[in-house]
Amino acid sequence: MRRVALVGLIAACGSAAKPANRPVVAVVKVKTPPRTEPNCEDMGPLLRRAFAPDGGDDSILETITSECRDQHWSAEVLACVADTPELNANDCMAKLNGEQTASLNSVVAGFSSWGEDYEVAPELQCADVVQATDVAEWEPAVPETDRDLARELRRPALAATCTTATWEQPMLDCILAASDPAKLHECVELMEPDLRTAVDGAIAGADAALKKMAPAMKAASCDKVVAAHYAAAKWKGQAPTLVGGSRTKVIATSKKLMRDACTAEAWSVDVRACIVAVDEPMCWKLAKLGSDEQTWTYPAEGTVPFSLGVAECDDWGAEVGRLFRCQAVPEDLRQSMRSSFNSVKESFKDMSRLTKETLQQSLPAIATSCREARDAVAQVAQKAGC
Predict the structure, then answer these.
(1) Which of 61, 168, 239, 282 has its CA 20 to 30 A from that of 47?
(2) Close Cβ partners of 193 (under 8 Å, ≥ 6 residues apart)
(3) What region does 131 belong to: left with phi over 0, alpha with psi -120 to 50, or beta?
(4) Which residues are CB-neighbours of 140 under 8 A, at least 6 positions away?
């Protein structure tokens, strides 16, 4: 169940601003007389010190009252605030829906005197809701025996819709609060057509992969993984500059690297069966490996030496490649270091536009930056025992 924290802003008194989206539970004692029918005019005085420990000014009263009235806070919320002698902010504010919470956050951000102990409560994030929900219960429901694998396939597929479709906060609230499949189905039925189409397509794709994987489970060896991923048809249109013997050698090397990685990293039967059956990016989400779909491109990462023309930068790239295959280093750190190098790699394409003189003047600074980056990657690898 989602928790919503009563909130405020960081005081701008010389201290660095803190992120505005870290929830902080605020428990404030407020003595109030019992009320049978509380209204929005009561909310300002009752919540004043919950939002502003020092009492603030009268504008806080007007803001809270207007927010309650304009956003139509429910009688349940009003009663909770009025009847709770020891006011727990989460207990009452958690009863606001997503739109009400977002609106409250936006207006309270205008107060700057609330102190460093209060922050604006975050809105729900689509990917977090997908991760927290039992997606195996989303229709069509999956048989109990297949649920674990179905969750692993459905979650990344649904998470991908977070960037391609619009998930409104009330929908995320509804899904996260759903206590059983029936209530979850009610939420899904309320989705906008575009979102519903994206969600249905994601689930259908994941379920189709699950169905195809079943017959491949028993015979999905590392050799079959390589044969499926690096089949001749997959190379069509790839690496057009590689021809003749060089192309043949690179293809053979790519296959060997993948076979060796599959064995050394002990790829699970789920990963192997997924690659053999469908060979989709979702397959790499089934286990934390020392490699992923960016490693097994055409040709495989590191198969063809890539030179930036600066020795220190090439060394940096080599260190990143070695680090990425080290499972002792957290995946998010490996991905971050690879992304940093790839960004520099892309920027080198623009260097061809520089004059020779300008380029020569820039090279010492570039070499120094790459050397420092290389040393940082090497240090991480050493500490992890890679």
Answers:
(1) 168
(2) none
(3) alpha
(4) 203, 207
